[in-house]
Design a protein that fits this description.
Oligomer: single chain
Number of helices: 13
Helix content: 40-55%
Shape: rod-shaped
Structural class: alpha+beta
Radius of gyration: 29 Å
């Protein structure tokens, strides 16, 4: 004569209504373990932002819903039957990162919960922050599909009641959005140093003071920069198309003398000014002519790029962080050498 969801267990402290509701739910679904809102706080501000968007679209939701021994980041309830869960929304937050094994974290966990009737929708933080409007449209489609989908659906705590969509919620990029969509991370284009020497001599025959001034200018304009690139710029300043052994040797000597003068710093094979070390520039290498070999990318610039990505998007899986850093540096693909270079720097950074 009534639906289990008509029993609002939040209005009583007695066990009888809870037991009756669980019995009726079991009789209907055949499942003993019913999901329950744990009352725990969201894992991250990212999860809070997603839940705010869901509620603006007119769907009540609970944080950290327990089901079959697992927890779901956001359990979305039916807008007209708020005791019934229709969708599990997973965010790559603290729970995701604390899992020890990807197999347990993704496949097995989701398989178990899908077998119990849950429908899943996953949102990655990088996509949410950089392509917010598209992700909100995708979320809206998943919610609408879950609302009319056939098949098993769980019931939960019958609290909250239906909520009307907020006016103007169709476009979360309006001024009413809780968090305005941040601009996609971009870096200025890589600019190579340009210098010319008026002397009509070979680079290795030029006075050392001229070479020291030259490499100082090159590093000031293009640093942090690999010593091999410094030698190329020295060769180009003298009108040479290639760098030979003698040019490399005299360039390295001039670089060493500039370090002794305290105008230039060396970090391994990379030269930079003190200002560049303290606030390293991050540069887009997608334009032709930019140095793209992995071993020519300064570790300090990779660390700076990682800092920008994490500050903008928050913590994320290591593989996603590597891809985001590569994109920020202007690479369309992450090859093995570039991936290894970034991974090495990240390992040092987190050590």
């Amino acid at each position: 004569s009534f639906d289990p969801n008509d029993i609002d267990t939040s209005r009583t402290i007695r066990d009888g209504p809870r037991v009756l509701k669980r019995f009726l739910e079991f009789a209907r679904s055949g499942q003993i373990a019913q999901p329950q809102a744990t009352g725990d706080l969201p894992d991250s501000p990212f999860e809070t932002d997603v839940s705010d968007v869901i509620e603006r679209l007119g769907y009540p939701c609970d944080h950290q819903v327990g089901s079959a021994g697992f927890r779901i980041d956001l359990g979305v309830r039916h807008p007209e039957q708020p005791g019934r869960y229709i969708l599990a929304v997973e965010c790559d937050g603290a729970t995701y990162h604390s899992a020890l094994w990807a197999r347990e974290r993704d496949r097995l966990r989701q398989d178990v919960l899908e077998g119990l009737g849950w429908r899943f929708h996953r949102i990655w933080s990088t996509d949410w922050f950089h392509r917010r409007e598209a992700e909100i449209d995708r979320l809206k489609s998943a919610l609408q599909a879950a609302l009319v989908a056939d098949g098993p659906a769980f019931s939960g705590a019958n609290t909250g009641g239906p909520r009307a969509p907020v006016e103007g919620a169709a476009s979360e990029t309006s001024a009413d959005a809780v968090l305005p969509p941040p601009p996609e991370l971009k870096a200025p284009a890589y600019v190579a140093a340009t210098a010319k020497v008026k002397l009509k001599v070979e680079p290795h025959e030029a006075p050392m003071n001229v070479l020291v001034d030259l490499v100082t200018k090159i590093v000031s304009e293009e640093g942090p920069i690999h010593r091999d690139l410094v030698a190329r710029r020295v060769a180009s300043a003298f009108g040479k198309a290639r760098t030979g052994g003698r040019i490399q040797a005299v360039s390295d000597e001039a670089l060493g003398r500039s370090v002794k003068k305290s105008s230039i710093l060396l970090d391994g094979d990379f030269a930079m000014t003190n200002a560049q070390r303290n606030e390293c520039p991050v540069r887009d290498r997608s334009a032709g002519g930019s140095p793209t070999k992995a071993d020519l990318i300064p570790p300090t610039e990779i660390r700076a790029a990682a800092g920008r990505v994490l500050a903008e998007s928050g913590e994320m899986p290591r593989e996603d962080l590597i891809v985001s850093i590569a994109r920020l540096l202007g690479f369309a693909k992450t090859g093995k050498e570039l991936q290894a270079q970034i991974e090495s720097v990240l390992s040092e950074r987190l050590a």
